[in-house]
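Long-time lurker. I teach an intro course on protein structure, and each term I like to show students one example going from raw sequence to a predicted 3D structure in token notation. This year I'd like something fresh instead of my usual example. Would anyone be willing to generate the tokens for the chain below so I can use it in lecture? Attribution to the forum is fine with me.
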Amino acid sequence: MKENDYEFYIKADVSKYKDEWIAIVDNKIVAHGKSAKKPTMKLKNCIQKKVH
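-- Reply from a regular --
Happy to contribute to a lecture. Here you go:
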């Protein structure tokens, strides 16, 4: 996790995502879900787009 995304996480109100996994990219929650699968896939897609 990038430092600024971590700072976003610490300061953000993520209470509506209680008991869920979340993916944060560029200070935005881009995905969430009860399992890690959806957030992980979205995170991978975001990273691939940034690299290419």
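Some talking points for your students: Strands lie at 21-25, 28-33. Residues 37-51 form the longest helix (15 residues).
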